[in-house]
Design goal:
Two copies of one chain form a homodimer. Chain A is 50% helix and 10% strand. Chain A has one domain: Winged helix-like DNA-binding domain superfamily/Winged helix DNA-binding domain (Arc Repressor Mutant, subunit A), CATH 1.10.10.10. The N and C termini of chain A lie far apart (62 Å). In chain A, helix 1 crosses helix 5. Chain A has five helices and two strands, in the order H-H-H-H-E-E-H. A two-stranded antiparallel sheet of chain A has the order 1-2. The relative contact order of chain A is 0.20. The first copy, chain A, is mainly alpha-helical. Chains A and B meet through helix 1, helix 2 and helix 5 of A and helix 1, helix 2 and helix 5 of B. Chain A binds a DNA duplex through helix 3 and helix 4.
Chain lengths: 115, 115
DNA sequence: ATCGTATATCGGCGATATGCGATAGGCCTT
DNA sequence: AAGGCCTATCGCATATCGCCGATATACGAT
């Protein structure tokens, strides 16, 4: 029942196109409630879905939907733990988002030269 | 007419709440067309809106809408240059997105200890 | 003043997102 | 077998997104 981060399991398959992959991850991060869920899980205060519901001013069904979005993007995984489901944030997926972002910034490298 | 990156002008005001700020920037990045526009502008191949339209399989009005979304998020700025508008990607805004992302990852720091 | 180019905005359409309550399914306990 | 907790899914309403064609606006050139 101890909240733990995701074991480095098989990562969710992202589009091969970096722009589409970044857009996909950004879509999952494009709602404050989902970012809060991620932060909550990363801090590993708790991991059960019920605890997340208690932590947000949203209905249980709405939180469940946000969790599904995060899961589909590979940012979160859930393991059944008896009657509960322990969710964990996939730090690797977040790091991939960072890499894709840096890859985008890198498009500016080499464009520094002026006439 | 030379495409240039944004001078470090006044940054767009982001929400003070990091979660909302990250969600806002992520919303702007949450579409492949907008990421492609950013990459195109960062590479500084060209900067006129018309060039961006030619670079994407989208109608002019649609591209204009995407540019407005990027502008509202502070990721892009446009300077009137005669009859054209020269758009530039705000590298600082992208870097702020990276910082917010790292700040989120940092929520996991200190949660590494087990009982 | 008029025309032409470049960009933004409007109106409409279908698709998707967000929210909720209600319901269904899983698993433990009794 | 029955009941209780936890989570997911369904159904619905509303709002926003993404796309386009059409129109409006701004500016330079004629």
């Amino acid at each position: 029942m101890t909240p733990r981060s995701c074991p480095p399991g098989p990562a969710a398959p992202l589009p091969s196109d970096p722009d589409e992959a970044l857009a996909l991850l950004a879509t999952a991060l494009a709602h404050p409630a989902r970012v809060r869920i991620l932060r909550f899980l990363l801090a590993r205060e708790e991991c059960f879905a019920g605890a997340i519901v208690d932590h947000l001013p949203l209905a249980q069904s709405t939180v469940s939907r946000h969790l599904a979005v995060l899961r589909e993007a590979g940012l979160v995984r859930g393991e059944v733990d008896g009657p509960h489901i322990c969710y964990c944030a996939d730090l690797e997926a977040l790091e991939r988002a960072g890499e894709l972002l840096r890859g985008l910034e890198a498009a500016a490298i080499g464009a520094e030269v002026g006439p």
